Amino acid sequence: xxxxxxxxxxxxxxxxxxxxxxxxxxxxxxxxxxxxxxxxxxxxxxxxxxxxxxxxxxxxxxxxxxxxxxxxxxxxxxxxxxxxxxxxxxxxxxxxxxxxxxxxxxxxxxxxxxxxxxxxxxxxxxxxxxxxxxxxxxxxxxxxxxxxxxxxxxxxxxxxxxxxxxxxxxxxxxxxxxxxxxxxxxxxxxxxxxxxxxxxxxxxxxxxxxxxxxxxxxxxxxxxxxxxxxxxxxxxxxxxxxxxxxxxxxxxxxxxxxxxxxxxxxxxxxxxxxxxxxxxxxxxxxxxxxxxxxxxxxxxxxxxxxxxxxxxxxxxxxxxxxxxxxxxxxxxxxxxxxxxxxxxxxxxxxxxxxxxxxxxxxxxxxxxxxxxxxxxxxxxxxxxxxxxxxxxxxxxxxxxxxxxxxxxxxxxxxxxxxxxxxxxxxxxxxxxxxxxxxxxxxxxxxxxxxxxxxxxxxxxxxxxxxxxxxxx
Length: 472
What we know:
By secondary structure, this protein is an alpha/beta fold. Helices cover 31% and strands 26% of the residues. Strand 1 (2-10), helix 1 (14-25) and strand 2 form a beta-alpha-beta unit. It is globular, with a radius of gyration of 24 Å. The N and C termini lie far apart (70 Å). The mean pLDDT is 95.
């Protein structure tokens, strides 16, 4: 049976369902095709469940160390099945919320596998979506426009067989029924570091093997170094410049793996191994070969309106690569829908997008790192301020870390803000607003921040750009 729509969205993750809601608001007859569950990776296998586990890890760490606050908690125990149950309940509550929003928007949902068909009796152009649903005949959706929002999946490494038991992806790790005593994490990027922090808080012995010369390679060097220092203090062993020798893997009562460290082969053993080496776009088996759509390195190529080479077919979110963040996917989806409706291009300035790492300590940033600013030819000035100079941080019991602000010496423009310390994933939004409004450090420094509050550190760091910080 064939159904006509103004817009069909392939993928009901964060980017897809937000795009569908915006399309509904603008009067488009819209459908989503989703083969798993609405909410996608972020809700079910990424952002939300991992942060729920990180929060439980934080509470456990704070309770174990509660004597620092004059509170004696005897016989503190971790009930990991209860931790997982809480995570599942949060995900289910949000999942129900997404379903309610889709119902409110009168958006049709087809639960199945969608594939793009080439020109056919349904349309002279590629874009008809065939939906394969278990136990039912295929449905044919005939849209005027298509948005591909099929997301991404964990990347594998050649020679490493992810079995879901001993060798895990982040998807598998979220479903652990019991904690291992030890784990090797391959990859020191955002996902690897969040898991390293969480598992260390839960009492797991963690070793991180990172191929590069530092962890968090996309962040400012000072933030990377500070994070490494904190993790090492908590017992996480970080091995850099580690080239895995995948042919040496032995799986028996745990896993043994060797790595070449600057010319010397070393072996590491743990109960489990977590592979955290990035994600690749879900472009397989969605019918791209029936179109002129171009791909590169497993991601779909788009223009600044998020159109593919087939102008009526758009792509957004993880499947087009880039920063691969849920909040970016949402805004790309909105931009694509609004281009469909009114032809207006609203490309995202990705230097205005905040990046967050939800480890302990948290890290957050926006704009250029110091190294990037210099590489781009800016003559810069830098202000830094430590959390130990902020009264609320001392009261909170977490005064490690700093805020660093980078500005253009000639124009005073804000180029980048980098933070590591307590609640910086919340504090970064002020910097994001400042960047969007083209604020100068002087303007942020003139903002009267409440005392005592963690937000005072932004004002102090901004004043420090001109050497005017008050409390340090």
